[in-house]
Amino acid sequence: MQNKHPLLAAASVAAFLALAACDKQPETISANANDPQAEELAKAPPVTLPPPIRESKTYRCKDNSLVYVTYMADDVTAMVRDKQEEPPLATLKAPAKGEPFVAEGFSLAVDGNTVTYNSPDAGKQTCKS
């Protein structure tokens, strides 16, 4: 037991000396200090976040295929997939609330629980949730 005390004392002294060598001045970090992108960021347009998701629905079409639609809270954006994969196949926009959602080659008209979906791959078909 007596052999452990000198080793413990030596370890304590080494730790104390290592900590004593630390710089005692606090480090100051400034958010505005020479940011290389400060000028570019000041000129950048404000960021617009995408609308939140209102609901997601799955529709079964007449040909027995499935269409997955995610409706956004702005009521003019819908994301469509014909497989349960990410990312969406297309993001469709409606000119105004209640009008059909459209994108190049795609359209989606909603009537209650029924949609009329048109895509380049599947053509035009009626689908129900």
Short synopsis of the structure:
This protein has two helices and eight strands, in the order H-H-E-E-E-E-E-E-E-E. With 129 residues, the protein is α+β, with helices and mostly antiparallel strands.
Topology, element by element:
Elements: H1 4-20, H2 38-43, E1 53-61, E2 66-72, E3 77-81, E4 90-93, E5 101-103, E6 106-111, E7 114-119, E8 123-128
Antiparallel strand pairs: 1-2, 1-8, 2-3, 3-4, 5-6, 6-7, 7-8
Overview of the molecule:
This protein has 129 residues and is an alpha+beta fold. The protein has helices spanning 4-20, 38-43, and strands spanning 53-61, 66-72, 77-81, 90-93, 101-103, 106-111, 114-119, 123-128. Strands 4-3-2-1-8-7-6-5 form an eight-stranded antiparallel beta sheet, with no helix packed on it. A hairpin with a 4-residue loop joins β2 (66-72) and β3 (77-81). The chain starts with a helix and ends with a strand. The mean pLDDT is 85.
Task: Jot down its keywords.
18% helix; eight-stranded antiparallel β-sheet; 129 residues; alpha+beta
- H/E order of the elements? HHEEEEEEEE
The gross shape turns out to be elongated
Distance between the termini: 78 Å
- The count of strands amounts to 8
Class based on secondary structure composition and strand pairing = alpha+beta
Ranges with pLDDT <50 over ≥5 residues? none
Largest sheet: 8 strands, antiparallel
Radius of gyration: 31 Å
